[in-house]
Amino acid sequence: MSIITNCGTTFQSAPTIFANPDANQQSPRWNYRDAFSRNYGLISHDEQERLRNCRVAIPGMGGVGGLHLVTLARLGIGKFTIADPDVFESVNFNRQYGASVETIGRPKVEVMSEVARSINPEVEISVVNGKVDHSNADDFLSDCDILVDGIDLYAIEARRRVFKCAAANNIPGVTAGPMGFSTCWLTFTPNGMTFDQYFDINDDTSHGRKVIAFLMGLCPRMLPLRYMDRHQANPMSGSAPSVSAGCQLAAGVMASEVVKILLGRGPVKPAPHYQIFDAYLGKFASGKLRMGNRSPLQRIKRKWLEREWKKRFETLEI
Question: Which of 28, 98, 113, 311 is the 20 to 30 Å CA partner of 127?
């Protein structure tokens, strides 16, 4: 058991804690106002101070999670709570910010917390070197102003739990994921449609159907299928085609949503609204699934993928 000193929370997942450097040891050449002064004109001085005092929770430091952290750190967000159970491997090199020859085998949270502090030496960052699940989700979100989803594509139960906890604690959440050379994003607000309602899943839904529901709900207009080999997606091995370009697009739209929410700028269109931008095709699509994944067309799409996956993955529970 370890203690996260920044927010006074005990986690049962035995996280590794990386303390913030002593402020007196920081370089005299660095100061917050200068570091983020180029934000002015897009963000006011008062708004920048508000961002400085906001805390963002990011479970997952992989393809999108690490880029989410870096993008928000460069916006001047001053506090983070991050989690990830994995270390960097060579298969991460094509898209993950912290992946390099020097970081192979190192915990992702350790590397990414160092990156965040190299951008802002004053940043307050609480680190969980483990998973976020039913046992610690409430503690993980403690004192946070917003949830930013960086959870692995196929880890649906962890994602369900953290969004449920966020809603229960009146914390908005944003999920922005890469899909080929595109990004798809959704925002969930405490008073809007819940994660389970939008994706049409519950405790009795099989794992395979949960994954399919998440894919189809996140990206109702599957633009990347025009150029993507969908057979490269394998829920059994936990792999899927993904490139850095899509991850960086996801981080950009996520940061824009976060700024609007934290600064109360609006307009924010929560689920069942969805948005998709495909840079490869040069196309943007948005819409509103009034019934979420329960809409007739969405049901047809889900059934189509269910049939395909049943043929390909005989042992997958669908």
Answer: 28
